[in-house]
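Obj.: predict assembly geometry.
Materials: sequence records (below).
Method: joint structure prediction, all chains together.
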Amino acid sequence: MTNKMLGFTNTEQHYPETMPVAARESNFDEIYGQFDPAEAAVQAARCSQCGIPFCQIHCPLSNNIPDWLKMTADGRLQEAYELSSATNNFPEICGRICPQDKLCEGNCVIEKGFKSVTIGSVEKYITETAFANGWVKPISVGSESGFSVGIIGAGPAGLAAADMLRRKGHEVHVYDRYDRVGGLLIYGIPNFKLEKHIIQRRHHLLKESGIRFHLGHDTDGRAFDEMRGKHDAVLIATGVYKSREIEIPDYSLDNIVPALDYLTASNRKGLGDSVPEFDNGYFNAEGKEIVVIGGGDTAMDCVRTAVRQGAKKVTCLYRRDRINMPGSQREVKNAEEEGVQFVWLSAPKAFVGNKNVQQILVQRMRLVAHEASGRQSVVPVEGENFAVAADMVIKALGFDAEDLPTLFAAKELKLSRYGTVEVNNRTMMTSIPGVFAAGDIVRGASLVVWAIRDGRDAAAAIHQHIMTQARSIAA
Ligand SMILES: Cc1cc2nc3c(=O)[nH]c(=O)nc-3n(C[C@H](O)[C@H](O)[C@H](O)COP(=O)(O)OP(=O)(O)OC[C@H]3O[C@@H](n4cnc5c(N)ncnc54)[C@H](O)[C@@H]3O)c2cc1C
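Observations (raw structure tokens):
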């Protein structure tokens, strides 16, 4: 099948079928369907093949999107997969959860007037077709290098690095404190965005590739020391997990919970684990009035999880307005469709209750002139307060890094002023020789696609470091 490109001139933008809103109420399955072959080819052929591909420029992985769209339009799907996976270790994940509206699709030149090419859905189609046809294979290592690398953290940064290093023939050991692989992909992000069997399928492939996983392995000072002694290089890819606090002094009411604890309980339940704090109702939104505080991806995942757990009412308080939200607009739209009420320009001022929270006293905010960052600041509107009822409050204000120099008993590990691990941008090496870092622990809370990019860069730097060390010993 061959489709002429430039189809945007006569073909409307079309996304795969989405699960009807009524069916989403108690259903945790992924809401987006998948293109059939004809739809994928026709939608891919809407690409204008513009001279300067802004989709590619705005992709942190520099994915060669125009070329794999053309191959999809031509029905050359195996080549499309090979090209797409040459720059992205996990295209099945990015196709589903990248904020395409901010990255590739948001920068598609036909977006102005014709609506962008549906790049993410085509990426998902190509990758799922590749899995279905057996084109995605475990790594087959030609010859073992004899060197070994220890990676702390099995999130997307650690896994991308593990994949790339194994391809070079190194022995790769991944250590994670969780009992499953995936980091935030497995316990943070809910099923309705990313079903867990997708992560488990990738874990299986990486295991088949010879990568060794040590799960339930919490790295502390002793373990960090041991790792440095055992491996030729170590990569820190531990992500950021310290929840930011609400600036309300001395609140001691129950039922005010951190977002990640709430989402982890829900994801574990979905995976069939025993979760007493869910079963006793503490982390279960069923029948409750839920208020989520925050405006990022985490807040959107919490409100939509609460809807599916059967909450009576779900409200999201965010101190800025809709266009200044850090989260993806696509997710806000999904949440609105699912019945979530957004109260823009509002910040919690006090929690009211007796043992358990019953109400939030909310301060109305207003936007003021741009900060140096380009985002507008907010200030309280004097005298404008109101109350919102709440049986459970979920705090989704973002995450900071744990204090790794203390945790790893490595005072020489230098941090940035944000508390993240400082690396040399060229070598990805930390202040400790032979120890590298990648992903959220370097960047601060970010995106999966950036974690993959950092993992790939760190792997290239580690390989170069190991080979240089080996050459200098041999000389
Ligand atoms: C709720 C939520 C929703 C999100 N939604 C999206 C989205 O839709 N799209 C998107 O692109 N991004 C999203 N993100 C962001 C994305 O998940 C992260 O940017 C990405 O996972 C970071 O990857 P990482 O590998 O650096 O860290 P992580 O994924 O956090 O993985 C770090 C791993 O290190 C392990 N670890 C930590 N400390 C230790 C230790 N001491 N010893 C052993 N193991 C340790 C952890 O257990 C974890 O498995 C979301 C984040 C959250 C919280």
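Conclusions so far: The chain has three domains: 7-132, 148-240+401-474, 246-398.
To do: check interface contacts against the pulldown list.
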